[in-house]
Write a structure and sequence with these properties.
395 residues, Cytochrome p450, three-stranded antiparallel β-sheet, 17 helices, 12 strands, binds protoporphyrin IX containing FE
Length: 395
């Protein structure tokens, strides 16, 4: 039976893993005639396209399925630039995101985590995504960007609204668009404040406001696009992995006992969760010339979806790929993508995710996850848990 895959179908938005397995079994990239596009679902194909065909595709046509398939707007930022400009604009804040750069933020991040966790511990229960991990990462993104911390709750609610999808929804709804416009308005007001008084600018905002590359400086729209990107990319994915880690451990009591007995296993837990339930799900590019990947002849102009969540479950790369096993060895992975656009925040994500899990598990080792009340994201892009209630004896 041929597979029919549409990233906007209810099945793909609800639980795409059976579709991914069926497409991998086809033995090569899956063609989607209605979009003149290819879905890359096998590890090797995503790897080869990322590592060997960077010059054959463009990021300027957008990276989200809604941009590539439905023509939704593509905010101009380094995430949607090609080399060499991409490298230069990404490089403005690169130092904060190297392994050493991430480590330099470790003590502050841990202190922030403890500050958020302390009142939650007294309650005896909370939602590991919303009340804890997402809150810490939003506050941290605000700090990195230089935004007023007291506004974190406002922008977090708006990001939730931007990514929210209703069953049957294809593309952004008026609800999503009005939240994006409101977040844009908030950021424009902030940018105009710091333009009037540059001494108010700090963090990434100051770095990008002062950057001049090849004689070009960012205007207000360019600056807002960068801030919006960092705010969204920096606050959703890692918390989903943290929440997912608690969910999957609860389903595997022997692994839970092992981690609680030895918290040095937490980095393994974080990475295995990110492999097992890769949160960005997919990103796309458009081919600018003909090339071959995984035996498929890609034509200039066609779209390629790099389906990371599928590649991370490929049996050809990972033994017992559908088993959650924190003790597995990763030889190579695509959790954070690969190639020149590989996730800028990967060291921050891993460090922060590990700290969040360690701090909670150390403080409340008797915790239980309410598996029946966990909820997953619904949509074509982000994938993972958005609600993971935990309970424990109040501290
Ligand atoms: C577990 C958490 C995360 C995962 C799984 C993840 C995954 C990814 C993936 C797959 C890409 C695309 C790579 C490509 O196009 O080849 C990406 C890009 C990016 N990520 Fe992450 N990410 C995570 C957390 C973060 C965090 C915390 C930040 C905070 C700054 C961040 C910032 C970015 C940025 C700025 C890009 C665009 C890079 C570019 O275009 O050059 N990510 N991420």
């Amino acid at each position: 039976m041929p597979v029919h895959y549409d990233p906007f179908s209810d099945q793909a938005m609800r639980d795409p893993f059976p579709l991914y397995a069926a497409m991998r079994a086809e033995g090569g990239p899956h063609f989607m005639p209605e979009y003149n596009a290819w879905a890359l679902t096998r590890f090797q194909d995503v790897w080869d396209a990322s590592m060997h065909h960077e010059a054959d595709v463009t990021w300027t046509a957008g990276a989200l399925p809604t941009q590539l398939f439905l023509g939704e707007p593509i905010p101009h930022a380094f995430t949607t630039m090609d080399a060499p400009a991409h490298r230069k604009w990404r490089g403005v804040v690169r130092r904060d995101y190297t392994p050493e750069g991430a480590r330099a933020h470790e003590a502050r991040f841990r202190a922030l985590t403890r500050e958020v966790l302390a009142p939650l511990l007294a309650q005896g229960g909370f939602d590991a995504y919303r009340d804890y991990a997402n809150r810490v990462f939003c506050l941290n993104s605000g700090h990195n960007l230089g935004l007023p911390m007291e506004d974190a709750i406002t922008w977090r609610a708006l990001i939730d609204e931007i990514v929210h999808r209703e069953p049957g929804q294809k593309g952004s709804s008026p609800r999503n668009q009005s939240a994006a416009a409101e977040l844009g308005g908030y950021l424009f007001a902030y940018v105009s404040r710091i333009r009037r008084d540059p001494s108010l600018a700090s963090g990434h905002t100051a770095a990008y406001m002062n950057a001049e590359i090849d004689g070009e400086r960012l205007d207000d729209v360019g600056l807002v696009n960068i801030l919006m990107n960092f705010l969204i990319l920096g606050s959703e994915t890692t918390p989903m992995v943290c929440a997912g880690a608690l969910h999957y451990l609860e389903q595997h009591p022997e692994q839970k006992a092992a981690v609680l007995a030895d918290l040095s296993l937490v980095p393994r837990l974080f990475l295995e969760t990110a492999r097992f339930d890769q949160p960005t799900n997919m990103l796309g590019r458009r081919a600018v010339r003909d090339f071959t990947v995984g035996g498929a002849q890609i034509k200039a102009g066609q779209v390629l979806l790099y389906i990371y969540a599928s590649a991370c479950r490929d049996e050809a790369e990972f033994e017992r790929a559908d088993a959650f096993d924190i003790f597995r060895t990763h030889h190579r992975d695509l959790i954070y993508g690969a190639g020149g656009h590989k996730c800028l925040g990967m060291h921050l994500a891993t460090m922060g995710g590990v700290i969040l899990l360690e701090e909670f598990m150390r403080a409340a080792p008797d915790y239980r996850v309410e598996l029946a009340n966990c909820e997953r994201a619904y949509g074509e892009h982000l994938s993972g848990f958005l609600r993971v209630p935990v309970g424990f004896a109040p501290l």
